[in-house]
Amino acid sequence: MEKFIVVAGNIGSGKTTLVEILSQQLGFAPFYEPHEENPYLADFYEEMQRWSYHSQVYFLTRRLKIHKELLQVEGSAVQDRSVYEDAEIFARNLYLQGDLSLRDYSVYQDLYHMLSALLPPPNLMVYLRASVDTLQHRIAKRGRDYEAGISREYLTRLNELYEDWMNAFDQCPVLIINTDNLDLVSSPQHVDQVVRWVQDKLTGRTEVWL
What we know:
The protein is α/β, with parallel strands linked by helices. It has a single domain, classed as P-loop containing nucleotide triphosphate hydrolases (Rossmann fold). The protein is 55% helix and 11% strand. The chain has a 5-stranded parallel beta sheet with strand order 2-3-1-4-5, sandwiched between helices. Helix 3 packs antiparallel against helix 4 (83-96) and helix 3 (48-71) runs parallel beside helix 5 (102-116).
């Protein structure tokens, strides 16, 4: 594999859209988040405490499988959310809010640290930052039934964890993009600008914040 980009961000931040754009414009092989395949996800959003461990272990397993597949790609790859976020954001949040027991969280973290240490880091982490208002608008617009119950408080806590994680992340260069005023669906100018930022960051030509 030549280059490996991870697109990170909260629910509704625009990760899948950006993965599609980078795949089309830069020729990167896309690897998407397997949310629709998770057999626990609908139950998880209805009853987080009961299904949190099952859902997180499923995501960790799937993410590691995807990571193995993308390492075998000829050329470059871009991934929609990474194994890091599963552990550092979502599992941690479940533990902090009391929906994942200390016992389950400790076992999960041990597994995560052991497996992630064997994985090569990406060449670039693109973090899509968005306000809770923006996230809620985008979640409502796409209309997934199992996301209808996601609360403002939940998105706020995830945003806080993302900021803490990004401030400490040192596995690879990071490109942080504020997306509240970006339209990557219908604005070619915005699409072209973001693609240039990604290209520049990959080659080390600039430090970009928006």
